[in-house]
Write a structure and sequence with these properties.
It contains nine helices and nine strands. By secondary structure, the protein is α/β, with parallel strands linked by helices. Pfam families: GDPD.
Amino acid sequence: MRKTLNIAHRGLSGIYPENTMLAFKKALEIGCDGIEIDVQLTKDGYAVICHDEELDRTTTGTGLIKDYTLEELMKLDAGIKFGREFKGLKIPTLEEFLKYVSDKNTIINLEIKNSIIDYENIEKITYDLVKKYNLEKKVIISTFNHYSVRRCIRLDRTIKTGALYWDCIFEPYNYVQMLGANALHPQYNSVTREIVEKAHDNNLEVNVYTVNNKEDMKKMIDLGVDAIITNYPNVLKDLL
């Protein structure tokens, strides 16, 4: 039986403001196996970590990340909407995060957010930073944009890729193999024992998102998935 890995979704985001350096640091403190982050581009081409294309939900800004320069983004607060005690937290740059984890023993699931806005050159910008900090072996790149998965593979097929999907794709292990990715990244409700077993037969990983309920965590562990991506890695750690 494979060991199921514990991946902190946007850091320890059930307890701290998502996709902030504080949430990442707290995730590592509790001993998770890896961290999942979301990457987008600023108006002036910098890779930053934020889940939504729009700033409104998690920051004091409004509108789209792509319409702000990095300097303008740094003036926004990315903590206060989660709780007043988190006032002053900033949107991290991808470089800041990769530099921080470069000497840590952690897996990085780096989601490129380009299914709504197909940011020009985001794959190369991301890969250049991964290579700058020698993290090729610790990273898996995922995206809902499967054209982008192919672009990533063309850039460097030695860096692992995962195909994110939401619905019940027919024989996803065959599709992902055709795509050339290394892993299925399904919404957990669509996963069956057959899918996990057939994926493993084809040397593919199954990394499920976003599993926050204890019973669902137990079910995924029982199915033998390779990784569980969760807002509550502290809860999952106790189960594992």
